[in-house]
Automatic annotation (TrEMBL):
Taxonomic superkingdom: Bacteria
Matching InterPro entries: HATPase_C_sf, HATPase_dom, His_kinase_dom, HisK_dim/P_dom, HisK_dim/P_sf, Sig_transdc_His_kin-like_C
GO MF assignments: kinase activity
Gene3D superfamilies in the cross-refs: 1.10.287.130, Histidine kinase-like ATPase, C-terminal domain (3.30.565.10), Periplasmic binding protein-like II (3.40.190.10)
Keyword Transferase: yes
Organism: Enterovibrio qingdaonensis
Pfam (any one): HATPase_c
EC class (word): transferase
Transmembrane segments: 290-309
EC nos: 2.7.13.3
Catalytic activity: ATP + protein L-histidine = ADP + protein N-phospho-L-histidine
Keyword Transferase: yes
Protein name: histidine kinase
Domain named Histidine kinase: residues: 349-564
């Protein structure tokens, strides 16, 4: 007697598979004399291994498994079983998403963080159709599928785990739920099917589309002659045969088209005929060796060029940093030189400022001596000594301001009222204005407020602007000319404005020329005054504006932003 091995995918376990399919093999044996068919049950991996070792003559499995195997091995589809569960006799494979009746999940989109399990990632109706459905809807990313557990057969255990609360969601093949209910294994009302549908008037609830039924196929180990006999025997099986009843079908028909199954595999990028990206890369490299070599050569040369450019860039960067450091040092020296020049030009004003407290001290001292000669007690001299001490403090303050202005110190921002350095600058130069008969007036408007300022730098700015205004007034020798310099300090909402306006000869050059370093109209000038002023103001995030006034004169405006402190 001729012997043939038939492999069966046992989704619900070996015993259930033998009970369902052994009658079909017995039917074939009765229809084909002298032939015996031996049933072998497998899970997905075992079935792949059996094909790898050429151990089977025939195959009885799901369409997904048959399609995948047919793309790797010689496999002829003989017949597709007909289902009694829907109006489409050749389609009944689908995925069913089952939860407990008390589950909080009602839609597929709700199960993102659920505890989910399926039989195998290779199971078409038990997983792949489910993944295809979710992927079409773009519900979840790849991380979602990595958290799904694959328990292996039997499928029944998944539903038991849902009922016992060990599992939130079970993915099982179509009609598994109905068959277990019919067999008395579970109570149908204890579970729910998410997004239940019944395509083709199916009596089985499903959660996805339906695909072709199980297929009987022949491997290359069996002859074509026996394949024809098996096909004919299957097609001749009556709908009411015991073998059909055991397998849950109503006979067999010609093989259904696997196009819809191929579509699922292609969409999920797991079709057996699809090459991996690595394989495609190797094939391209094999077919385009010259281009690949050229690309590698260009890449190597670009890498070398990149290293060369980076080396020169870093060297240039270090050179620029050294140059910048030198420029900063020289700029600091120039600022110091310019401040020293200002102090030297204010010599007469400084001498007057110091002589005033010194003269007062001299007068008070002589008065003390006279009173001591007249026998006045030390207690009566205390007020006079206090006045002497006050004048010493005034003289000391003048000297300290001059030392701060001349000393080359790093920039130090302190909190102060801008009126302080404006008044101190005017005090240093006021005597010089009086000596030249130039009227100097200060007006302050707005609510006083404090800000962060470089006091020495701002004094240098004020002295530069006042000195330029004084020189402009002296050069204007017109008739009925009353030289005047007005200083305004305006407190705004978020800024302070310092404006110095004179009625001198006006701008002797264009605004553009005045902005250039080393440009000067004075015989002994360095041309650094306004550029240094502009640098100090910009360091305060402010700006300087120069414009002529009518009929003659010039107005310089300094605007510095200041953050007003909120008052409680």
């Amino acid at each position: 007697m001729q012997h043939y091995d038939v492999g069966v995918l046992a989704l619900r376990g070996d015993d259930h598979a033998k009970k369902s399919w052994q009658p079909t093999l017995d039917w074939l044996s009765t229809q084909i004399p002298g032939v015996y068919f031996d049933l072998h049950t497998y899970d997905f991996d075992e079935l792949d291994d059996a094909f790898k070792h050429n151990q089977l003559d025939f195959l009885l499995t799901s369409p997904g498994q048959a399609t995948r195997i047919a793309r790797e091995y010689q496999l002829n589809w003989l017949a597709t079983q007909k289902t009694p569960y829907s109006s489409n006799a050749t389609h009944s494979i689908a995925s069913v998403v089952v939860v407990h009746r008390d589950s909080p999940y009602f839609y597929l989109r709700d199960i993102k963080h659920a505890n989910i399990a399926a039989v195998s990632e290779k199971a078409f109706g038990g997983f792949l159709a489910f993944r295809y459905e979710l992927d079409k809807r773009r519900y979840f990313n790849a991380d979602f599928y990595e958290n799904i557990r694959f328990t292996g057969p039997p499928t029944d255990k998944l539903l038991y785990d849902v009922l016992e609360g060990d599992l939130d969601v079970a993915i099982v093949p179509a009609c598994t739920l109905e068959n277990m209910t019919k067999e008395g294994l579970i109570n149908r009302t204890d579970v729910r099917v998410l997004e239940r549908r019944n395509p083709y008037d199916s009596v089985c609830d499903v959660s996805t589309g339906v695909y072709p039924n199980w297929t009987f196929a022949k491997t290359e180990r069996a002859s074509n002659e026996i394949g024809k006999k098996v096909t004919q025997a299957l097609l001749d099986m009556p709908a009411d045969a015991d073998a059909a009843f055991s397998a849950g079908n109503v006979g067999w028909t010609l093989p259904a088209s696997p196009v819809s199954v191929d579509k699922v595999f292609k969409h999920l990028d797991i079709h057996p005929l699809q090459k991996s990206k690595q394989e495609m890369l190797y094939q391209w490299l094999e077919n385009n060796k010259l281009i690949a070599f050229a690309c590698v050569f260009v890449f190597v040369m670009m890498s070398i060029y990149h290293v060369w450019v980076e080396f020169h860039f870093n060297r240039s960067k270090r050179q620029l940093e050294n140059t910048l450091f030198e420029l900063q040092e020289r700029n600091s020296m120039l600022e110091h030189a310019q401040r020293t020049m200002i102090v030297s030009e204010l010599g007469s004003s400084i001498a007057h400022e110091i002589n005033q407290p010194l003269s007062t001290i001299k007068n008070y001292s002589e008065g003390v001596i006279r009173r001591l000669d007249q026998g006045m007690s030390p207690e009566d001299l205390a007020p006079v000594l206090g006045k002497i001490q006050h004048q010493v403090t005034v003289a000391s303050g003048i000297i300290q301001r001059l030392r701060g202005l001349i000393k080359q110190t790093p920039t130090d921002y302190v909190t102060c009222d801008p009126a302080d350095f404006v008044r101190e600058s005017i005090a240093l130069i006021e005597y010089d204005f009086k000596a030249k008969n130039i009227h100097l007036d200060l007006s302050i408007d707005g609510v006083p407020q404090q800000g962060q300022f470089d006091i020495i730098g701002m004094q240098q700015v004020m002295l530069n602007l006042l000195r330029n205004a004084k020189d402009a007034c002296l050069e204007n020798t017109g008739c009925n000319h009353n030289p005047t310099v007005n200083v305004e300090l305006l407190y705004g909402l978020n800024e302070v404005v310092i404006r110095v306006q004179d009625n001198g000869i006006g701008l002797a050059a264009s605004v553009t020329e005045v902005k250039e370093p080393f440009y000067t109209t004075k015989d002994d000038g360095l041309g650094l005054g306004l550029p240094i002023c502009r640098e100090v103001i910009e360091a305060h995030k402010g700006h300087l504006i120069m414009q002529p006034t009518k009929p003659h004169g010039c107005e310089v405006t300094v605007i510095i932003p200041i953050q007003r402190e909120e008052q409680e």
